[in-house]
Amino acid sequence: MAEGTVTVAEVETAFQKFAVHGDTKATGKEMTGKNFVKLCKDCKVIDGKNVTSTDVDIVFSKVKAKTARVITFEQFKQAMTELAPKRFKGKGQEEALQLVYGLIAGKEPTNVGVTKVAKAAAVDRLTDTTKFTGSHKERFDESGKGKGKVGREDVPDGSGYVGAYKGQGSYDSKVKQDE
């Protein structure tokens, strides 16, 4: 094999990695249009000048079966054969294809823009129990740990006294005095 050529197996490995990206049910045998565009973006097949995401979409539609929504690796190679001369203008078909495969081989889906857990100041403020006021304050102890059900529900007091009565528990002593 000549210097700088990439084996089809290497490209197929990359194809499989992108094919299963973001899809738990994917087998890696077929690729959706979304993942095809992602592969083209991540591997810099789309350069914004010669090849745009529109071109990639058109080629995807062209190579897939009429009713299918996915392409196989064979169709993928066909798509790359179409995109390669556009991406590397002035190069021969084979050379351009090798260059495109060179871009793809060994690549994996990059997680660009994957949602990071934002622990921003706003979230910290909202979850800081020391700043809680009113009835919400009652739901946490001094350490900021939740009290559970006690902090949430009014637990009925079966003593028979009204809530704010100060002389609670003094009934028996009063009755006994009067006798």
Automatic annotation (TrEMBL):
Biased composition range(s): Basic and acidic residues: 135-155
Region described as Disordered: 134-179
A Gene Ontology cellular-component term: cytoplasm
UniProt keyword Cytoplasm present: yes
UniProt subcellular location: Cytoplasm
Keywords: Cytoplasm
Gene3D superfamilies: EF-hand
Single Gene Ontology MF annotation: tubulin binding
GO biological process: microtubule bundle formation; microtubule polymerization; positive regulation of protein polymerization
One Pfam family it belongs to: p25-alpha
InterPro entries: EF-hand-dom_pair (IPR011992), TPP/p25 (IPR008907)
Family assignment from sequence similarity: Belongs to the TPPP family.
Name of the protein: Tubulin polymerization-promoting protein family member 2
Lineage: Eukaryota, Metazoa, Chordata, Craniata, Vertebrata
Gene from which this protein is expressed: tppp2
